[in-house]
Write a structure and sequence with these properties.
Shape: globular
CATH architecture: Sandwich
Helix content: under 10%
Number of helices: 2
Number of strands: 14
Mean pLDDT: 94
Distance between the termini: 32 Å
CATH class: Mainly Beta
């Protein structure tokens, strides 16, 4: 397997062909959303990871990572720094640095930044061609702006009212552990 070529996308390096590569988080391509924080996905349209999704998500206090949802695949999450709220199956848990969340397939969940600064979460999940998502209406998630307006399996419908993420590093970049 050859080494993948990395190119600057305007907000960091991303692979432009399949292959192995090494990439430091501070040099990687970043995406930012006013509604859902910032993230680094390590892959690109030219080089996707078909079996395992992996990314870093950075949330400011009160900012959700996405909309409350469940998936047909298992996921795993590790808080690397800061604090966040885990909304899971209608319950709320405070997570801190080094807390791990195992998320079996079908578990409803979302993260919301907490504490007094950015929270960094390592997110991983299995991928299959038959993956199914569900965005339920949740009163708890709604308190944090993280609920779909109506239940749907369609991500484009669930996220229709939000702006698309844009390439770029978050404004609080200098406060992150790798800066």
């Amino acid at each position: 397997m050859p080494e993948a070529r990395l190119e600057d996308s305007g907000s960091g390096l991303a692979p432009v062909v399949d292959g192995w590569f090494v990439l430091n988080v501070r040099d990687a391509e970043w995406w930012t959303s006013e509604a859902f924080g910032s993230g680094c996905v390590f892959e690109s349209r030219a080089c996707s990871f078909p079996q395992l999704g992996i990314n870093l998500s950075v949330l400011e206090p009160g900012q959700p990572s996405c909309l409350y949802h469940s998936e047909s695949q298992q996921e795993a999450f590790l808080v690397l720094s800061g604090e966040c709220r885990l909304l899971v199956e209608g319950a709320e848990r405070l997570l801190r640095r080094w807390d791990f969340f195992h998320c079996p397939a079908g578990t409803e969940h979302v993260f919301v930044g907490a504490g007094d600064g950015p929270c960094v979460i390592l997110m991983t999940g299995a991928r299959t061609e038959d993956e199914q998502l569900l965005y339920p209406v949740s009163e708890l998630a709604g308190r944090y702006g993280a609920s779909a307006e109506q239940e749907t399996p369609d991500a484009s419908q669930a996220y229709a009212r939000f702006e698309r993420p844009r390439r770029g590093r978050p404004s609080y970049w200098d406060r992150l552990p790798w800066a």
